[in-house]
């Protein structure tokens, strides 16, 4: 699902270090005011997030992952030399893509891979302005999401978004106005001394409101679309490559099958169902589940870099997707999960297997609210009444049930646009890129061909076991 970071930049880092150990330098742009602070954060903060530039490939890296299983192949290869290897290849650069300028140390880089999660629009502007100042820059490669298309149906082409266009045609998208609305809303909340929770809620509501006004289903796809527009509009004569992955899953092969980071997208439902807590969701049984393993996304990034060495001012878009080659339906995915967990049940804290419950796939939000009203709300009301009589002694049970109900509604609303998605992503450009890689005999190293995947086998033997290992 698109809420994920679209590309695990850490796996791109790992791949380059593993297959190209002669890479000259990896620049880590760490959010810090100066070099000493950047070094301190790098050496002392296990969970800090930094932005990375590899020979100016610009991505986000969790430094702590150097100690994780993802890097075990590299650790086994280098053994005691890993830290000296990292020190030799990594250069720390203080900065922040949300700021107006970036450190001078990055001015001479060749290629920028820009990945921005928090600041889709502001970050895009700063990165493209920075890119224009890079004397040896060959291209600006931006990882977006296929779901900038919103909820379009039919064949969705690989073409750039026009600056200011909307998906519903009923309004004009002025990005400066959108930014001003956010700033004014934040100022108003500050004046009113709003709490952090109130600010978060207000901004979520505003984001959804503005996104839907212009035809996007949520803030994520809306800001991603605006980020693309800004890059395309202000790039001038720079070559811009836009990669749009669909729903990203665990690794298919590299550095080993099944590695995954974090609870996100369909993994939320896998975990919930296996623990016996998730037995209802919304979606169309014929909805195409367009998914792609993360290592294939990484391979497509490197393939695009390799293929676009000649200077050009054109913008090229690639859909890194699977729906045109193999239409895996949502109903197929659900059945695969059910079959897997029947054979491999979750063992609870008492050492007993969790019994798999019947899974209900509902066809609308209205059906979900009706289902909850019948199966959960009476119990919640009784629990609330009993808790009041017993002087709040059942508060924990009441709060837990209420949270589960709210979580179910929240997840359904979050994933609704994708649970009923009726589009198919054209990958003609991506296939031409794959052909170029085959002709250069690099398709083993840079494989991102979804037709090579046996999906049921991948889910049962790779992805779901990976979720169990790395998330459970």
Automatic annotation (TrEMBL):
<keyword id="KW-0443">Lipid metabolism</keyword>
<keyword id="KW-0444">Lipid biosynthesis</keyword>
<dbReference type="GO" id="GO:0035336">
    <property type="term" value="P:long-chain fatty-acyl-CoA metabolic process"/>
</dbReference>
<keyword id="KW-0560">Oxidoreductase</keyword>
<protein>
    <recommendedName>
        <fullName>Fatty acyl-CoA reductase</fullName>
        <ecNumber>1.2.1.84</ecNumber>
    </recommendedName>
</protein>
<dbReference type="GO" id="GO:0010345">
    <property type="term" value="P:suberin biosynthetic process"/>
</dbReference>
<dbReference type="Pfam" id="PF03015">
    <property type="entry name" value="Sterile"/>
</dbReference>
<dbReference type="InterPro" id="IPR036291">
    <property type="entry name" value="NAD(P)-bd_dom_sf"/>
</dbReference>
<comment type="function">
    <text>Catalyzes the reduction of fatty acyl-CoA to fatty alcohols.</text>
</comment>
<feature type="domain" description="Fatty acyl-CoA reductase C-terminal">
    <location>
        <begin position="375"/>
        <end position="472"/>
    </location>
</feature>
<dbReference type="InterPro" id="IPR026055">
    <property type="entry name" value="FAR"/>
</dbReference>
<dbReference type="InterPro" id="IPR013120">
    <property type="entry name" value="FAR_NAD-bd"/>
</dbReference>
<dbReference type="GO" id="GO:0102965">
    <property type="term" value="F:alcohol-forming long-chain fatty acyl-CoA reductase activity"/>
</dbReference>
<keyword id="KW-0521">NADP</keyword>
<dbReference type="InterPro" id="IPR033640">
    <property type="entry name" value="FAR_C"/>
</dbReference>
<dbReference type="GO" id="GO:0080019">
    <property type="term" value="F:alcohol-forming very long-chain fatty acyl-CoA reductase activity"/>
</dbReference>
<dbReference type="Pfam" id="PF07993">
    <property type="entry name" value="NAD_binding_4"/>
</dbReference>
<feature type="domain" description="Thioester reductase (TE)">
    <location>
        <begin position="11"/>
        <end position="300"/>
    </location>
</feature>
<comment type="similarity">
    <text>Belongs to the fatty acyl-CoA reductase family.</text>
</comment>
